[in-house]
Amino acid sequence: MLRNSSTRFGYLAILLHWSIALLIVGEFALGLFMTDLDYHHPLYQSLPQFHESMGILVGVLLLIRIGWAFSNIRPAAESGVGPVERVVSRVVQNLMIALVIGVVVFGYLLSTAAGESILVFDWFYLPAVFELMEGEEDLCAFWHQWLAWSVMGFAGLHALGALKHHFYDRDQTLRRMLGLGNRSGN
User: What pLDDT digit, counting tens, does each position of 80-129 carry?
Assistant: First the structure.
């Protein structure tokens, strides 16, 4: 089932969720790895372009995910999930989305700071909107890094919440996002 139902997530929502999650973790790890490369490392020139391309992919997938979420119903929470837990869950999820958008925007600004386009997977160029003034590049780098760490912190909270539902509450919350939950209500 492609679309969400009142009791479960559709396969496209699940695919987008896990694809974005894996890309974000990979991008974070790659970003950390790249900060330790010196100018003479063989990957010094190629990894930043790959990181930029993957960041653009994350941004595109996130926009698709947001559009898909607005065009679908949201499955009801498990019966044992209280109102406070629902609000906290939504706040964390929405903060993660906002933070990821921030990471992508500041990454784009950082990559195009000199007014040069970004070559995306050797397929096309994403043009620079404008050239940054002196000092703004460092500010973009700061926010890109700080927001990336924040995303990872909230992703950790999100994962802990999913594990709590699975192991402590013993409900179907995690199984539903894995595509293994309740099949009724299709």
Answer: 788 898 898 889 999 999 999 999 999 999 999 989 999 999 999 999 99
pTM above 0.85, yes or no: yes
- Whether residue 1 lies inside any domain: the answer is no
Question: What is the radius of gyration, based on Cα positions, of the chain?
Answer: 19
DSSP-derived secondary structure for 83-114: HHHHHHHHHHHHHHHHHHHHHHHHHHHHHTTT
Q: What is the CATH number of the domain that holds 92?
A: 1.20.950
Q: Which two tokens stand for residue 70?
A: 């607005």
Residue 140 and residue 113 in contact, taking contact as beta carbons nearer than 8 Å: yes
Range of the domain at 34: 11-177
Q: Strands, E, within the chain: which ranges?
A: 118-120, 124-126
Residue 45 lies in a domain: yes
> Which candidate, 142, 180, 151, places its Cα nearest to that of 26?
151
* Residue 3 placed within a domain: no
